[in-house]
Design goal:
Elements lengths: L6 H12 L2 E4 L2 E4 L11 H13 L6 E10 L9 E10 L3 E11 L5 E13 L23 H11 L5 H8 L4 E5 L14 E8 L7 H11 L21 E12 L9 E11 L2 E10 L4 E13 L5
């Protein structure tokens, strides 16, 4: 049974989760999610790795991109170690390489993610924004995703208890979806989706933390976009999947506790993989980040 927590408690827990502990100049530790079960959420590992990288560069250099590869699924419970390699420190730019590792039950530490992050001192430059924010329903006129999840669960009384608990788990990220995501119906549809997201309560005024939270939330809904044209869902046990890589370009600073629109699309799937893209906008229409991800996506085989 899920224990009710106030929104601020959930967000404070997210801040603690992403606030990695410095052990030395090039080594950090990320704590596990309290009460986490099964595989570690990929967005958590990306966000902790980014926080570790950000803590290893001077404050005036700001993360503008990250490129990550998921190597193995992390396990909830053990902490995650983040080792940092300083590959470049220039006058304007810097680069950090991060290896996230976790020790298994056999006592052996194995890499679960590699991430490279690039940093730049803020400067003025040529500006343009070719894409406009999609014209979508504002968040105030939409139901929360948690309300939608409850409705889906009520309509599927035979849903496995583990799936039910996963869907009802309180989340520090509030989402409101304009379209029907893969778990909402089984009808094939266009591979595109639009969702608003923000933290469920205010965050501290730390731009590095806001970037990490945006990175954390960018792993929501993205891989599922490539499932939409096939009318299949992980929640119904029809698919197996996992993120393979994840890239974010941070174009402008933004607050993760204000509503942001996440517009995703999937131009291709095949060979057991799905390719997905995302654009993140402020309410005023400013493009603040672009995302790309490829993931493993396979139809689940029926038991023999």
């Amino acid at each position: 049974m899920n224990t009710y927590k106030k929104p601020q408690e959930l967000v404070d827990g997210l801040v603690r989760l992403l606030s990695v502990t410095r052990n030395s100049d090039d080594h950090f530790t990320g704590l596990p999610q309290i009460g986490g079960v099964g595989r570690v959420f990929g967005g958590q590992v990306i966000a902790q790795a980014l926080m570790a990288a950000q803590n290893s560069v001077p404050a005036e250099k700001i993360a503008h991109s990250l490129h990550a590869f998921f190597l193995r699924g992390g396990k909830e419970g053990p902490p995650i170690d983040y080792s940092i390699a300083c590959d470049f420190d220039g006058r304007s730019f810097a680069n950090r390489r991060v290896v996230a590792s976790q020790t298994g039950e056999d006592g052996i530490s194995r890499a679960i993610l590699n991430l490279t992050a690039s940093f730049q001192i803020a400067e003025d430059g040529l500006e343009h924004q070719e894409c406009s924010m999609p014209d979508v329903t504002p968040p105030e006129r939409l139901k929360s995703d948690m309300d939608l999840r409850r409705a889906v669960i009520d309509a599927q009384p035979d849903m496995p208890e583990t799936t039910r608990q996963l869907m009802l788990r309180p989340r520090p990220i509030e989402m409101r979806t304009i379209d029907r995501l893969h778990w909402m119906n089984s009808e094939p549809r266009e591979p595109a989706a639009h969702s608003w997201f923000r933290t469920a309560a205010p965050l501290p005024d730390d731009p590095a933390l806001h970037r990490a939270v945006i990175a954390y939330a960018s792993d929501y809904t993205l891989l599922g976009t490539s499932a939409l044209p096939h009318g299949l869902s992980w929640m119904r046990g029809e698919l197996t999947g996992a993120s393979l890589d994840h890239t974010i370009w941070f174009h402008r600073p933004a607050r993760a506790d204000d509503w942001l629109l996440y517009a995703t699309d999937s131009p291709w799937s095949g060979g057991g993989r799905g390719f997905n893209r995302g654009r993140i906008f402020t309410r005023s229409g400013t493009l603040i980040a672009s995302v790309a991800q490829e993931g493993m996506i396979r139809r689940r085989r029926s038991p023999a």
